[in-house]
Amino acid sequence: MWQNMTAHQNDTLSIEVSDFLLNCFVRSTSWQHWLSLPLSLLFLLALGANATLLITIWLEASLHEPMYYLLSLLSLLDIVLCLTVIPKVLAIFWFDLRTINFTACFLQMYIMNCFLAMESCTFMVMAYDRYIAICHPLRYPSIITDKFIVKAAIFILARNVFMTMPIPILSARLYYCGKNVIENCICANMSVSRLSCDNVIINRLYQFAGGWTLLGSDLILIFLSYTLILRAVMRLKAESAVTKALSTCGSHFILILFFSTILLVFVLTHVTKKKVSPDVPVLLNILHHVIPAALNPIVYGVRTQEIKQGIQRLLKKGL
């Protein structure tokens, strides 16, 4: 009899699951109520602000320049990231729709990894754009051309599409049996992989190596670009030129700093998860997909005179 019970338990544990359940703040249900309102407002703000920026750049002929094309790309990436993550989180908060099928889960995983890497790469190209504009202003029109932007966009797309593709593939090839509850609000790679009955060491290694190769190399090049920019600015004798140069790339630097800081905080809290609540890394992961998306167009709209004027002209035409 004991052997029959053991065999039955083993059969139950070996049943292959077909859906996942997102265990989103179930230990702190009050978080769901408190977070749903600010999260939905941030979501609407991100979509509205980025859509406004895209429409303004598209309709205003004066903004058809390389720098603004890069801003358009950044806004497009932010919109996709928000739509990939936030609606599902709000559906869990409001309607308790925690179930997500395999295809949707691994697709979400791929888009999150791919588009975050593309956003980091876009910041890197924008840093190079500012470096050329300030350190080599006379050569800027011949270097940063529409053709350069097309090549940069192809590079951003190709590098990150192919480099991040193994992440969901490695997770999807694993055998999932018995446990199907993801301790997260989203289908993060390691949150999903640890449910598997297989060895996930390859997944961990690729996630670590790929993440530091892509994001790490971008951050190093961004830091190098701004170091050279700062050195060039300090050599300028005219105070007005220094102010203009710092103002030109100030908004860009603020957004990169925020993007990097929230990512660093997420990594540190994930590493020291024994000392913090398990919900903190989950919360930071969600916020990282919506707060930069909401801030990017606002900061550029406020600090970039040409964009501000373009929005004002469109509003006057609409009225």
Automatic annotation (TrEMBL):
Major location category of this protein: membrane
Subcellular location: Membrane
Gene Ontology CC: plasma membrane
G-protein coupled receptors family 1 profile domain boundaries: 49-300
Topology relative to the membrane: Multi-pass membrane protein
Gene3D superfamilies, alphabetized: Rhodopsin 7-helix transmembrane proteins
GO molecular function, one term: olfactory receptor activity
InterPro entries for the chain: GPCR_Rhodpsn (IPR000276), GPCR_Rhodpsn_7TM (IPR017452), Olfact_rcpt (IPR000725), OR51/52/56-like (IPR050402)
Any one of the GO BP annotations: cellular response to lipid
Stored PROSITE patterns: G_PROTEIN_RECEP_F1_2
Transmembrane segments: 37-59, 71-95, 107-128, 148-170, 212-233, 245-268, 280-302
Keywords, alphabetical: G-protein coupled receptor, Membrane, Olfaction, Receptor, Sensory transduction, Transducer, Transmembrane, Transmembrane helix
Protein name: Olfactory receptor 56A3
Name of the gene encoding the protein in the UniProt record: LOC103267045
